[in-house]
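Lecture notes, continued. The same structure-token format from the folding unit now serves as the input rather than the output. Read the line below as a description of shape only.
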């Protein structure tokens, strides 16, 4: 619904509230010289009643990442509907973001979408949709599987050790452990469904047949590996580069 339709649909007091929020958004975003001015041109239709402080932080993150690009080149993209569609979706997600890391991921994906000639705006929006479906813990796990070998990225693992701490679920263990294992499995299943992780199934060394899990009755998973799509997503959100 555009602003004109909103004005017709809402009573006067609600109209004033929407106008106030939109004006406040434009004022805050306008304080950031370049990226803020880009977002101002989209703000009126995207963010009424959303968290302006989150968008202000997002605007600053985007400004830092667009600084290396030619401003006239970036502004010329405003005539491309695929670009404005990508930016609007990025703003929607930023308005709902609850962590600084999430806003950094979003800003990097948008900036890289402009700068990377190999990835179109439509493809960037597809990646943005996937990012929007991943929670912050799942993104950490995706980064973990970029270099999961023995030792891996020790500093990264140590920083997020509460996420990667092994869970030993077994018959007779306490409910808290079972709950933690259930949540971790749900993360892996979800990332597999999104196509960013691929399960590696366990097989019997003698028969070469798949081994089935006694709890779930499904083929037992030995581990996971990151897919090409998962690696692309990590590159576009500037979270990590592929290991040499």
């Amino acid at each position: 619904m555009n602003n004109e339709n909103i004005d017709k649909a809402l009573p006067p007091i609600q109209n004033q509230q929407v106008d106030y929020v939109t004006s406040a958004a434009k004022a805050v975003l306008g304080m950031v010289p370049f990226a803020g001015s880009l977002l101002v041109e989209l703000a009126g239709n995207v963010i009424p009643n959303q968290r302006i402080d989150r968008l202000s932080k997002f605007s600053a993150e985007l400004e830092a990442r667009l600084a290396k690009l030619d401003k006239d080149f970036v502004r010329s993209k405003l005539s491309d509907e695929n670009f404005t569609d990508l930016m609007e979706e990025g703003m929607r997600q930023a308005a709902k973001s609850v962590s600084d890391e999430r806003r950094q991921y979003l800003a990097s994906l948008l900036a890289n979408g402009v700068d990377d000639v190999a990835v179109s705006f439509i493809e960037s929006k597809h990646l943005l949709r996937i990012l929007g479906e991943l929670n912050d813990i799942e993104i950490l796990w995706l980064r973990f599987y970029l270099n999961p070998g023995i030792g891996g990225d020790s500093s990264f693992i140590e920083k997020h050790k509460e996420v990667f701490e092994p869970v030993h679920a077994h018959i007779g263990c306490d409910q808290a452990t079972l709950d933690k294992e259930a949540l971790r499995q749900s993360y892996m299943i979800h990332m597999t469904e999104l196509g960013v992780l691929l399960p590696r199934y366990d097989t019997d060394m003698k028969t070469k047949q798949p081994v089935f899990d006694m709890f779930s009755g499904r083929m037992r998973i030995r581990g996971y590996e990151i897919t090409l799509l998962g690696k692309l997503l990590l590159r576009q959100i500037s979270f990590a580069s592929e290991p040499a």
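Point for the exam: The CA atoms of residues 155 and 161 lie 10 Å apart.
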